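New here. Invent one.

***
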Amino acid sequence: MYTRRIHSATTRALGIPEVMGLICGSSCLSQSDLANLCQVSRFMSDISMPPLWRHVTAEVLLELICSASVCSRSNGTIRSIILDEHSIDDQTFAKFHLYAPYVRTLDIYSGKHNRCYTVHGWDILRDEMEAQGHPLLPNLKTLRFLNISHSYGLDELKWISMFATRGVNEVSISPNRLSAEGLIAFSIASTILKTLVDLCPSIQTLDISTGDFSMPLFPEDDRLRTAFAHRPTRRWYQELELLTQLRYLTVSDGWLCPDSLLALSNLPELEFLCIVPGSLDGFLIFDMDPILPTGVFPHLAELSILGSDGYDTETILSVVEMSRKITVMRLELELCSEDGVDDTWRELEKTFGGLRNASCLRELHVTFPIQPEEGERPMNAYDSIEKMGPHLSLEHIHISGIRINRDHCFIRKLAALWPNVRTLSMPSQSASLKELEEFARLPSLRHLTVNLSLKYPDYVTRPDFERRPLKTLKSSGPVRLSTSYKDLSLSANALLVLWPSLERVSWSDEDPTRTQMADFFNSEVLRFNREFLFREPRDVAQLSATKRAKEMRSLFRLVKEGLEEVDSDSDADADTDPEEGSGTE
């Protein structure tokens, strides 16, 4: 029984919204544990209910309906949820309506499995909604599909028709990367968009990945026949024009056909556009019309192109009115080789060449996915990066899966291309002191990430340019340091010659022995050289390092003891290519 009284400190603590938010948002407690927490008392229930039910999965929500039964597969995943029309009474939806007002985000399907469940009994849900006279989830804001069913969008259309409301501002239908059938047909996407126009016209975020499919001569799947026969009243781009509040949009490259691209360009509030693979029957990227009316894409500032090859990427970027105001760009390349000819280096040229139109770039991410465990190595960029030309506004760059060959002298040319870059991350780029000497020419660089090797010290000449304000040097690989104190001191001195303001060097390494060596390098060697040595001539530095080695021999011996030096000389990307002219190895 609930009475007004002084509650314990624990109870009062749980009454703090932020505390309950942390508890209910924690992955340490199961849904059933959290539900039990709510049932302790009415006081606890009133506090816990909103954060507990703010974000739920569709299967948990439907199981609140008394007539619902769940059928599972042998591996424990849900096969279907059946709503029995013969067991409906006044209390069937009692629990559902108790919790439904708290739901803000609804997740449908699972992103961990490639098989989605089906729901039987949509009429029961529709009848209940009509009986209530308001949406089943009246306060829903976000509707997310973590997978796409094999219905080509027909099941997704049912979910949206049932639960979308005027208050929904985000709908995400992500592609099922584990199954080729997990896609939304363009024809059904048109009807989905019409439904969104009718139910939630003020939607601001939409992720809908579509793609056409080939109809087999004798289709056995009823859903395939139904999807193929579906004929919308209007095309998807005609419905898109009515969603005037869209700010964040993810679509497939089939949406770049002339009529659809024009509709995209006229969205008045669009700020972010992401393009993923998904073909439209009868349309190729090369058929794009790069000429658009002046002034379109008025607010577009962020562009992502994921899963395209270099040629398609260049074609998309050739649309000047789309690229000219972009400040943040993300490119994830899927380069291809046809007829046994490795042409990936040319695709890189096309990709970076396409960036010439993006003159307002401040942040650039270029990724070429590789799997080192399968023997894949970073792609040699040669001088392809130079094709992008100077970008004076560029401040932050991340390039992974791509490297510049050590035998080429292109690294020093980066200073002319990126004079104002402050953060540069090239985790696939191996760098010894010689390469770091080239990176030191970047005039505004403050943070640098490369695959660093300091095992073999080398003298660097005092720069003939103004030394830069670099503070952070990070290695994407394991600790590669010499086990000789004298060599460590020479390496530290060389780093400080290049960057007097360098504070520390960090490595992506969890081996305790190697990290101990790295800590010793930063706390003792680098610190000592910063305070005493880095301004002295070369011969004096070497002499001082030798003297210091004697003084610290006992301390260094403790660090070095038990250290098994890992042979890391063969970097993921070698100094030279086994075959000049190949883009990947």
